[in-house]
Amino acid sequence: MACTEFELIERFFNAATRPREDVLLGIGDDCALLRVPAGCELAVSIDTLVSGVHFFADADPQALGHKALAVNLSDLAAMGAEPAWVTLALTLPTADELWLERFMAGFAALADRHQVQLVGGDTTRGPLCITVQAHGVVPQGAALRRDGARVGDRIGVTGSLGDAGLALERLCAGEPLDRSLRARLEQPEPRLAAGIGLRPLANSAIDLSDGLLADLGHICQRSGVGARLELARLPLSEAVEKQVKMRCEWSLPLTSGDDYELCFSVPPQCCAQVEEVLAGEVGGCTWIGVIEEDQGVRCYGTDGRLSRAVQGGYQHFRDAD
Amino acid sequence: MACTEFELIERFFNAATRPREDVLLGIGDDCALLRVPAGCELAVSIDTLVSGVHFFADADPQALGHKALAVNLSDLAAMGAEPAWVTLALTLPTADELWLERFMAGFAALADRHQVQLVGGDTTRGPLCITVQAHGVVPQGAALRRDGARVGDRIGVTGSLGDAGLALERLCAGEPLDRSLRARLEQPEPRLAAGIGLRPLANSAIDLSDGLLADLGHICQRSGVGARLELARLPLSEAVEKQVKMRCEWSLPLTSGDDYELCFSVPPQCCAQVEEVLAGEVGGCTWIGVIEEDQGVRCYGTDGRLSRAVQGGYQHFRDAD
After folding, report:
1. Sheet holding A226-230, edge to edge
2. What's the confidence (pLDDT) of residue A43?
């Protein structure tokens, strides 16, 4: 089922990113051959973006190339892994060179910024669909996991919450959208340095793809604990803060997805160190709550009461359901 | 963009295959964590099957689950790698439980047979599209590659050629198709043991996905050599042999794809050992030609002349174009 024009694309892939020393064989054989450093574990994550589901069919291909890679690198960030290699399976309705060139420009710019090499690709004809697998390395036993949160841990997040959700709302409504808010949706920055910095300090971590309540819910469920969130502490951009006040509810920062910030839990004695480590990183660090014994995620208002944070009722999540 | 029914599928993935000791963390976190044995390289390959392009929309899901994994394991076989882990990105129009159960049954049966664990999955809603990445390990510097063929090497293949192509023709024409021929198209067996057996003996190898001429062309192009094929030596099933005779041309065994046999080149002094190693393996071994200095792949008939092997002209491939 080979198709010459698609084969050509694969050759184009080969030159897309800068070569790494630990790639013994890149694109062009049946497999890529890679060297994992001694004393390290391999961390892998695969994600698919589908046209019309995860992005608009007419999305800017350069931004899409960035995002397809970013959401995978974000998974590596959440484990505290150092990114290394990536594979790309691209299903395209036509071999549109201009589209592809821009897509790969976005993809490669982010890859190069993090010294990631594209080592394998498959291009097929069909409805637009992008699958990326990211590969990283992490010292033995050092990876950040979802199941390590302990009662008393403080809950932190990088960056601000709800910006991608607000940008999506505006795009869907055809409302004007400033460049920086649009970038929060279309070109998220994977918090790789933050993840590596957190690695020796945090008990658990996750990246925020589905929204804070759902993703913190995953940590709680996997760790067999619960969480108390202080709404007043949530880090909000001016734009999101304005919406929260206007709407008198918190769904933007609590349940909208695609922020790709990190959420993590840290034993109290390590918090100062975490602040120091993350002070120099884009996204910084804000403490938003604490891990508790009672399962579920509870949101508290400035009055110290369990809050009706999101339209429709109290937020009292169990297992993120 | 999470969807509860799709999240449930991912949990179902978790139990699909038998656990391996070198999987430190499987499905359910941001990444899987894997241990590559000391002294080994990691071999990875990613492939996508698209509905309507690589398979019929109404294909038997169990066979499809088998094939989606088999085509990737076949890439590991071609490198002489030992299969270890696999990830699966599945885009489905609906979360059809029955379809999925059968798909995973086919996938898991093949995975278990080769001690492969499913360690990562992503399920999304969209047009049916299946991407699998296979991960294997191979001792340092020992992998079989496409670029190692040397002048004088004998060219060998496992199994028989053209069966999958004939099965596809019959399916497309609505003609009757016996079970074993259908299996050659829908449930190819990756030649993993053959690949591992060939590893210390062969100079080059590839798996036959695009047809013998194209794939042997890849070996020749990457190795900077050419090949002479003896048509009379091509291993054919009775069904394919009958068609070749009837049609007076060889396109079935030469240019039809999807056979997933191995094609390899071996220095003459190692041929006896290869025969011995492959004698016990399904697919066996047949010598079909020799590597020459002149670039391109040339087919010779029983009369010793360059043959008009395929309709449309002489087969004299350069760079498989």
Report:
1. A204-207, A262-266, A154-157, A286-292, A226-230, A296-300, A316-317
2. 98
